[in-house]
């Protein structure tokens, strides 16, 4: 029969796995994004990155990634990733309103 400590550890692992499956945890990554296009005048860039890159932009106070001011994020992952990014945007927007 497993000890209480062992059962608690297993419960924590299951909860963590459930949170990941729900898409509630996206680790921020500031590295790995690539600039794939820039307009001739240099005012518009297109970055290609991961969900972690999008999370890093949403968490950043200046909204910059790879030296570029990010104004739009297009999520081509799945509905869970998109929902997680929406939740992150809502919490980061609420935090910036509180600090203003």
Describe this structure in words.
This protein has a two-stranded antiparallel sheet with strand order 1-2. The chain has a two-stranded antiparallel ribbon with strand order 3-4. 48% of the residues lie in helices and 13% in strands. Helix 2 runs parallel beside helix 3 (79-99). It has 3 helices and 4 strands. The protein is an alpha+beta fold and 100 residues long. It has helices at residues 4-21, 51-59, 79-99; strands at residues 34-38, 45-48, 64-65, 68-69. Strand 1 and strand 2 (45-48) form a beta hairpin. The termini are far apart. The longest helix is centred in the C-terminal third of the chain and has 21 residues, at 79-99.
- Radius of gyration, whole Å: 18 Å
Helical region count? 3
How confident is the prediction overall: mean pLDDT?
79
The percent range for strand residues is 5-15%
The helicity comes to 40-55%
- Please summarize the sheet with the most strands: 2 strands, antiparallel
Class from secondary-structure proportions: alpha+beta
Trace the largest sheet across and list its strands: 1-2
Number of strands: 4
- Spans of at least 5 consecutive residues whose pLDDT stays below 50 are none
Order of helices and strands: HEEHEEH
Q: Please report the distance between the alpha carbons of the first and last residues.
A: 54 Å
Silhouette? globular
């Amino acid at each position: 029969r497993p000890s209480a400590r062992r059962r608690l550890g297993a419960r924590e692992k299951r909860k963590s796995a459930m949170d990941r499956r729900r898409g509630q945890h996206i680790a921020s990554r500031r590295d790995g994004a690539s600039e794939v296009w820039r307009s001739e005048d240099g005012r518009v860039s297109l970055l290609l990155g991961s969900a972690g890159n999008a999370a890093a932009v949403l968490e950043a106070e200046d909204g910059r990634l790879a030296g570029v001011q990010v104004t739009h994020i297009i999520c081509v992952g799945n509905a869970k990733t998109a929902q997680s990014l929406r939740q992150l945007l809502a919490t980061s927007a609420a935090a910036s309103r509180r600090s203003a």
